[in-house]
Amino acid sequence: MKIRSIIGYAALAVAVGAAAVAGRAWLTPAGPEPQPPVAGVPADLPSSVARGEYLAKAADCVACHTSQGGTPYAGGRAFRLPFGTIYATNLTPDKDTGIGNWSDDAFVQAVRAGVGSHGRLYPAMPYTSYAQMSRDDVLAIKQYLLTLAPVREATPANTLSFPFDQRWGMAAWNAVFFREQRFAPDPAKSVEWNRGAYLATALGHCGECHTPRNAGFAMKSRDYLSGAEIEGWKAYNTTSDRSYGIGAWSDEQVAQYLSLGHAPGRSSASGPMADVVEHSLQYLTPGDIAALVTYLRSVAPATSGAGAADGGATIALDATAARASNAVLPGSAAGVSGLAPGLARGQRLFAGDCAGCHQWNGVGRQTDYASLNGSHAVNDPSGAALVQVLLHGTSLTVGGRTQQMPGFGEAYSDSDVAAVANFVLSHFGSKAGTVTAEQVRKARAAQ
Questions:
Q1: Which of 45, 55, 65, 390 has the fewest CB atoms within 10 Å, i.e. the most exposed one?
Q2: CATH tag for 333-446 (out of 1.10.760.10, 1.10.530.10, 2.60.40.1230, 1.10.1740.10)
Q3: pLDDT tens digits for range 75-98
């Protein structure tokens, strides 16, 4: 990945001369400020501040601008990239370390054009998607942020290797890959579809995680929402394809996954997606969730592209129940016969530590979130999400209730994690898992 990024950066340096000659006139939006569709926006918000709070949640600002255990919006969260670490900035109204002294124009410029107080921003900040937002929506978010208690907390310095630590390089990246274009409703589509498109592209920036990247780390538009890898997790295919995406999901399943983080018979959100549900999607109105479902249904199906780009984010789902039943007792002879040694070892570990919650038929016990049947994670031969969950666990709080799975990173060796992951893939997804102890070791070291 680092080599690919360096090549991409070098290509940008070559392109910047031509871009400088051409200027940025063709990149700058022209004409009046467009207004986004309003269907689904809560009609009973008591003030513009409340509207800004709703929009900030729809844009999932707090998830990125809050460090682990830190004050919301005070910044400091680390984003570890192949070429270094970037830290999110402080968005509280502190005048020295936050946005307390920022003008409206400066805030809009940072959000939509990627130019902040210290120069050009890196696209870890999704200004490439936020560029589509209306000025009114951006300033409503700013108005809400200014009502927060100021927190004096300086943002840690980025630690990027050369040449990625040179912000001037972002001028080249923007010239090649970024067009500052506002959202334009499609008159041929319904108001609900347009609202869903605005939520998914401008506010929710779904493509930033679910779309694979090219050598320059820009989104591949032709593979939109076909799946990608983010922070060691897979952001799976969310196109309308019936085998690889969510085309076979019912509208209710898609809506429940978005708003609750769990779709019966399908998946439960974990990792970065659990953060999105917890901090953003669960707060959207039923009208906005319905609009998102309508939009996602229209995304062209994708069955290739992501699989080659990120090592298998495009996968075929087997939503049937596990082949074994609850009659298979943990540790019994019936529970291990006929399995290869590696899978038998994984089954023994599953029997001792996992079957009590997930059950042998994968329907889950005590909570629906423990269901494994139909999950993307147990159908992905690479086992990326399984490895992350087994090592670090996962947590999701929705409606005031926390669903949590503990991590086994301290109790399991690298080969133990690989064995359990490969058994789960075989038993619940009918897939031949390819997880290795070396893969687990790298995932453990990355954290």
A1: 45
A2: 1.10.760.10
A3: 999 988 777 888 999 999 999 999
